[in-house]
Amino acid sequence: MKIAVIGLGYVGLPLAVLMAKKYPVVGFDIKQDRVAQLKEGNDVTLEVSSGQLHDVLCTTVPKESGLYITSELNGIEDCNFYIVTVPTPVDKNNRPDLTALYKASETVGKVLKKGDVVVYESTVYPGVTEEECVPVLEKISGLKFNEDFFAGYSPERINPGDKNHTVEKIVKITSGSTAHAADVIDEVYRSVIVAGTHKASSIKVAEAAKVIENSQRDINIAFVNELSKIFSLLDIDTHAVLEAAGTKWNFLPFRPGLVGGHCIGVDPYYLAQKAQEAGYHPEIILAGRRLNDSMGEYVASQLVKKMIKAGIAVNGSKVLMLGITFKENCPDVRNTKIVDVVKALQEYDIDITLYDPWADPAEVFHEYGLTSYKELPLGTYDAVFAGVGHSEFKAIHLEDICKPVSVVYDFKKIF
Fold first, then answer.
1. Is the distance from CB of 381 to CB of 316 less than 8 angstroms?
2. Which of 58, 79, 133, 263 is catalytic?
3. pLDDT tens string 189-200
């Protein structure tokens, strides 16, 4: 078994490092700067430590175990087990964007040989693996599906920034295009996943299982977000209500939040797309998405109202935004909804300062055209918006950064 992992981001790199402890693994990524960083033992996503990387890194393709990282196609041509872990975002109209998946399939198709297995981990709607990816593999390779090569789907369950639920500690769903392929794929994952595996009855079942995991969380968060709007009108403390309700054994402990990132804020659109293609309009799923997507503008308006009530001149005021990443203690800024808050506040001509010790300022500027700081800028502010619960923020002394009359909107209940 010689494994190639296509895409070395938040999902692919931890998996490649884990697999490399037992198998010869080639990590492939088209981003040459990413490859260069990883070869030096530096993972900017912070999912894998330098020590973990150096333990498995090899300067040449390993024969037994270890990880060789490359951006060259010939580096993966001798592999026989390909794992695709590229991003599957949505476009500006919230429609699934499979571009990276198509290109990754073309890459694998160029080196595909008889007997090879291709496993997809990227989040997709049911049917993508067999109806979208496999035809690309067949076309590029000239080989026949389920005769010359086989496919599978094993959805990623990576939780960025979570050092407790790492890849080997999370039960892995596996599936294959034939019974034998399913057994082979399951055996490979089971050999490295400490938590064990669950072999789904089909690829479509595995695809559907993944896409509903995050859709369920999205809907639950939408529910408590709506509650927070209602209780705000009734002048009731939402967190106090949830704390009281949480004393019942089967109450689910969800909290209001800005739902961004590459999973929860995206996956429901994949399921909705497939449902609509089948002639069904998914009301609850899309209602949850609409509500969660509206939260950025809503909390911005709430902050402005509180500033007005405090007698603060909104136009030209200075607001400190704590956090720009999509979640706490994580450098990932993809699809962060803090940007929605920033844009809404900028419409009031508010001067916003972004402070985030985890985010890369260059990446923030590249993605959103916003300037951010890794160190807390000196100065005093008319308002502070705590939008991300980074651990570092707990050490901030509000009296040192706030003007005598100011508003602190503690959205993440940090202080």
1. no
2. 263
3. 999 999 999 999
CA pair distance 210, 260, nearest whole angstrom: 17
pLDDT one-digit tens code per residue, 91-150: 888 899 999 999 999 999 999 999 999 999 999 999 999 999 999 999 999 999 999 999
Measured distance CA(17)–CA(31) in Å, rounded: 18
User: For residue 301, what are the contacts with CB-CB under 8 A and spacing of at least 6?
Assistant: 344
How high is the pLDDT of residue 109? 98
Identify the pLDDT of residue 139: 98
Place of tokens 């502010």: 381
| 123 torsion bin: left (phi>0), alpha (psi -120 to 50), beta (else) | beta
The answer to whether 223 touches 198, Cβ cutoff 8 Å, is no
Q: Computed from CA positions of residues 348, 350, 355, 361, in that sequence, does the dihedral angle turn out positive or negative?
A: positive
263 as an active site residue: the answer is yes
d(CA 156, CA 142): 29
The C-alpha atoms of residue 286 and residue 320 are separated, in whole angstroms, by 32
Structure tokens at 93: 């109209």
